[in-house]
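Milestone M4 deliverable, item 7.
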Amino acid sequence: MVWWYLPVIILVSWIGSHIIKEIAYIYRYKKFSWYTLFFETGGMPSSHAATVSAITMGVLMQEGFGALFWACLVFSGVVIRDAMGVRKSVSDQAILLNKLLGKARLHEKVSIVLGHTPLQVFVGVMLGMGVAIGVWYGAVV
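Output delivered:
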């Protein structure tokens, strides 16, 4: 068991997903944004999915199919479901509500916290698992 394995994969998957998001932002808007890099929710790939998938895969690589792995798997499922389901629904409703408030000429706006599409979550999961496997074989072999 390598003591630094889990902290490394957590940081690499989280930071890596945010760097990918920032590259996409720069490509799309032709400018850099510290806010997008550290605080923006939503986007490709899901940093939530990448991080929890890295943790789950990392625990599997170190501990096998024990109780901790199954707990991590359930935890990952809850986080991913929230990012893809609940937050996505809330963001869609907030966008619609803001349109309605604009048509009613009300100046108040609802804050939009972006959720994730299934593709964004899938790419995040693949990124997290890839980081965990890559670091494992880089550290162990």
